[in-house]
């Protein structure tokens, strides 16, 4: 009986290891394959905070700001020299020109909100 129990535990561990290392992929960015995505601005986080988009194509990001604090008022793409005001409770769409592959951070003006745009 003991051997059986050990085997069952062993199998369970093995299944867990397989799941952990091969099946549970680390959460990657949300894909914006169509080049369009809406990002919610609330509670100190952009959701999604990591966005993947195809390099070499213009994309359009929509921000829906639900956080009334002045902190969330602007979104800044420092690398792209783009800074836009986000109206409260309305969707603001920002067009970004085509970019080469790479990671581009976007933040609020105080950098408390942080997000990454990955062109892949
Ligand atoms: Cu801020």
- Main β sheet profile: 4 strands, mixed
Pick out the low-confidence regions.
none
- What percentage of residues falls in helices of 4 or more residues? 10-25%
Bound molecules: copper (II) ion
Bulk shape: elongated
For the record, what is the CATH homologous superfamily label?
Cupredoxins -  blue copper proteins
What is the strand content? 35-45%
Q: What is the fold-level CATH name, i.e. the topology?
A: Immunoglobulin-like
Quaternary structure of the protein: single chain
Q: How many helices in DSSP terms?
A: 1
CATH class: Mainly Beta
Q: State the distance separating the first and last CA atoms.
A: 54 Å
Mean pLDDT, rounded to whole units? 88
The tally of beta strands, per DSSP, is: 10
Layout of secondary structure:
Blueprint: H1 2-23, E1 30-31, E2 36-42, E3 45-47, E4 50-53, E5 59-65, E6 74-77, E7 82-85, E8 91-96, E9 102-107, E10 114-119
Parallel strand pairs: 1-4, 2-5, 4-10
Antiparallel strand pairs: 2-3, 5-8, 6-7, 9-10
Bound molecules: copper (II) ion (CU).
Describe the structure.
With 120 residues, the chain is an alpha/beta fold. It has one domain: Immunoglobulin-like. It is 18% helix and 41% strand. It has one helix at 2-23, and strands spanning 30-31, 36-42, 45-47, 50-53, 59-65, 74-77, 82-85, 91-96, 102-107, 114-119. A 4-stranded mixed beta sheet has the order 1-4-10-9, with no helix packed on it. A 4-stranded mixed beta sheet has the order 3-2-5-8, with no helix packed on it. Strand 2 and strand 3 (45-47) form a beta hairpin. The model has no long low-confidence stretch (mean pLDDT 88). It binds copper (II) ion.
